[in-house]
Amino acid sequence: VQLQASGGGLVQAGGSLRLSCAASGLTFSSYDMGWFRQAPGKEREFVAGISWRGGTTYYADSVKGRFTASRDNAKNTVYLQMSSLKPEDAAVYFCAARRSSPYRIDDASSYAYWGQGTQVTVSS
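RESULT FIELD:
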């Protein structure tokens, strides 16, 4: 299984970025997908999740109304559209995959597969 995250970069505060995560080696449509981030000196935190069917999305309070998760099961890809970016959004962003699970979608330990991360830098 491989998860390849891309789309990170440097953006000014208030700007937008779209992250992508291309999955291979798994039946993508059967997996919940999550986005997590980790800033220097901080623990990894949940950002957003999208159910395997794509009908349900979940967000951390800190990004609600600014970030949107979506997926294209035909392309085996999950996206994170980030708008109104703030300096505190700067982090390495990771995508992750798990089979449908009874555990909360924001529970990082419930994810079996992780991508390598993509850096997001937000200048003030």
